[in-house]
Amino acid sequence: MSKIYFDHSATTPVHPEVAEEMFRCVTGIFGNPSSIHSFGREAKKAVDAARSRVAESIGAKKEEIVFTSGGTESDHLAIKGAAYANRKKGNHIITTAVEHHAVLNTCKALEKEGFELTVLPVDGYGMVNPEDLEGVIKDSTILITVMHANNEVGTIQPISEIGEIARKKGILFHTDAVQSMGKIPVDVNELKVDLLSISGHKIYAPKGIGALYIKQGITWRPYNFGGGQERERRPGTENVPGIVALGKAAELAARNLAEESARLTVLRDKLIKGITERIDHVKLAGHPTQRLPNNVNFVFEYIDGGTMLLNLDMHGVAASSGSACSTGSVNPSHVLLAMGIPRTMAHGSLRLTLGMANKEKDVDEFIDIMPGIIEKLRSRVQPG
Ligand SMILES: *Cc1c(COP(=O)(O)O)cnc(C)c1O
Q: What is the CATH architecture assignment of 4-12+257-378?
């Protein structure tokens, strides 16, 4: 039995070239980047080079990149930093119902602290309407946070349109680009964002490293204090090997973007066609075209997602149902519910996310084994 990894949106394997640079750093560069001596200078040089690579990959200046411990921390740093810094100006924050919990729960925590929160609904494809967004802006609005691409259904939001609105009204705009990075173009100028989050382990670097883009000159402030690292925006001795890995991964993401996204789009569309042709009572969740090239999300009727995942695992297929964090919980995905998918159907969701580890034969194999699994599961829950 061959193993098939269809869960690249949960995490990715480390790219061999990333691993190699990271290994060279772990074994060869141990200085503290803040030290004056040659060991420190060597480490600082490695961090600086990585910062330039990350900046370049998203069209930013290198001073605008802050390294963090991952996507979650980047989201926190962006949202809380913007909210606290602008409190005198207003207290209203706008987000959407389909955000990652790193964003949603940060916004909800701020609501408990006295900020006012508007959670925008989405349409049946998981898409935010920029006109709806413009309609809820008030004089007190200080921050808009809308993800670039959804981690569960792959829907790509109209970020530059929203950025245009935010800019016109003088409101800070953050986007979580953790899932879009490396799959569609991510350029801070084209997207018209002030803050943008990325994470290493979604782009073939290890877990525990990420970055936040903070546009020069915006009103934002840190909320952690310590040494002066990262220009006092994120104190603590730098995760040098992680930073080096992220730098390499960002460079590869930008370099391989066109070729890899074209390759994955073909595989994605073959999966969608193969499954919907061979299985009844299944629907594609998310947008048919405004969708990440590596994302497939099916909703199967009369199926329990958890049981389906276990059966797939027995066949060597790694996939997910809803988001990785909510797997095992009885609540169906907040994203599918926000899209108006009924609770009973949302339980039958299956997310397949493709990546570097996949070849066409994985897709063919999956299309062959899936009908049998669905038939078996449905014959159990639906006697007669
Ligand atoms: C994975 C993910 C995060 C969290 O990133 P971590 O590095 O795991 O903390 C945030 N947002 C989105 C959209 C994600 O997919």
A: Alpha-Beta Complex (3.90)
